[in-house]
Amino acid sequence: MNTLTVAAKSLLPQLTHARNPGMPLDLDWVASVQANTSAIERRAATLGGRRSVKKDYQAAWLCKAISCIDLTTLSGDDTPGRVQRLAAKARQPVSEPLLEQLGMQGLTTGAVCVYHEMVETAVRALEGSGIPVAAVSTGFPAGLSPFHLRIAEIGESVKAGAKEIDIVISRRHVLTRNWQALYDETREMRAACGDAHMKTILATGELGTLRNVARASLICMMAGADFIKTSTGKEGVNATLPVTLTMIRCIREYQDRTTVKVGYKPAGGISKAKDALLYQALMKDELGHPWLQPDLFRFGASSLLGDIERQLEHHLTGRYSAANRHAMG
Description:
Number of helices: 14
Shape: globular
CATH class: Alpha Beta
């Protein structure tokens, strides 16, 4: 067994854990949550200089990152053919010869993420692979459609075969500090998901402050979110390291108080392999090995996979291939 395979296996097999059942809204806890923005930004700024992996170990971490990607297409011009090609890429994210050299046969992405209209197509294309389909829902990306329609959309996506639902919160509840409304809305969405896991998108770039991000994270976990997610990818500012640090420290505090593990998904703007390594390092530092597994950590991305594939080819051959050789479909 080569060094790379040993390094990859050292990141632990996928873990299983109970879903987040949620808890009653605790407004005293919410009011106590603060965020020291300058300290958070300093911590995030130093990460790249303090955490680095090279050679076989870097390749192993990049393979692990692939297993945590929600391979995504959320465009107005999506077609069944595009989704089928994306599903094929999810099944075989890296060329077979490269995987054989890496000793990583059987590697797949964590999920495929699509609009509701494409759920059935994705489910059929992924049949037998074990790769779940995630559907963006609840009036994505703005979350401003009538509430009963947002709830109905969740039910339709679950009925169509989606195993994961990415819901969006009403940002106005955070901006007006209507925490009860945010909790009640998210709780009802969680109930509508049934057995499907719920990822709650905070749209952090539109929440104003890191303190708002922290409080919204906590309330969504209280309401039963299985994952908290940064962004829709459609905002002006999407995933950042300071936002990530804020959110995962809330995850840690929630686990400390409830013993429940909640997952994390940064999304939007993560397109380079080096960025994936930084996010993984931060997850390991703050939350530990379990949050390097796809049941607790996902990247919401599309172009990220292409850059990782190029880096893996460079690792094996010493040469960078053209980006167009690693298309998503």
